[in-house]
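for the record, two folds in this file. i put them one after another cuz i was lazy. first one right below, seq on top, structure tokens after. the second one comes after a little note so u can tell where it starts
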Amino acid sequence: MRPFDNFGNVFIGLAGQVAASGLPELLGAALKRSSIGNLQTVVDRLSSSGFADRVFSWADNQSKPSISPGEVAEALGPENVASLADSLGVPKESALNLLADKLPTAVGEATKHGEITVHRVRAAG
């Protein structure tokens, strides 16, 4: 086994132990290694894919409604999901589970510290 063969599993374990304030930086490092690029891109894709109210709730530090791995996959698209999984060295399901679990807290922290911008999108009608 090569030294970094288990990197993805170690990364996921670390994400489960890091303080909330460190999540944006940790997720940002993983996203930067993939075609996604950064947390702002994830927020923008989620917002434009029908999850804007949820993202705004996370950013406004209101309740932290969950998002499913399937919803994250829908917003990011298969190519980006594959890129993130490949960059972490984990199955796609593991990468999606990580994002679904950690995004609400990471978005709240990143917004609070001015690292990303979240706009409330009003429904047409």
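(here's the note) second protein begins now
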Amino acid sequence: MKILRNIFNRYSFTSLLFYLSILVFIIAFNFSDNRSGGWYQQFMPDLNGQPLSDVIFLDSLKGFAITDNNFTNDTGYIIKTTNGGDNWNIVYSDNRDFKAIQFINLNTGFICGADPFTGYNF
């Protein structure tokens, strides 16, 4: 009986609760780094190091992205996905500076930007 009284002593029970909470925190933190589901890394086609300037999805699967033309004689890209971003394909490339993309419906979209040589907006 004395052993049980020592185990369930107010001070030892508080210590046990403290260490148990630390253990639970460590286990929970480690499971948060285990990405078994949810987010995962996507890979893009080779865009010559061009950063994306705009991305738009028309639904959960179909989306478009465009790149800036940051340097002289560089290429701007329009890329498309039909499977939620798992695969991207280059649908158009030109020596233009694409800035923004917008769709008014599923079939009609617009891209704006500027010609890097003349500065003319399109």
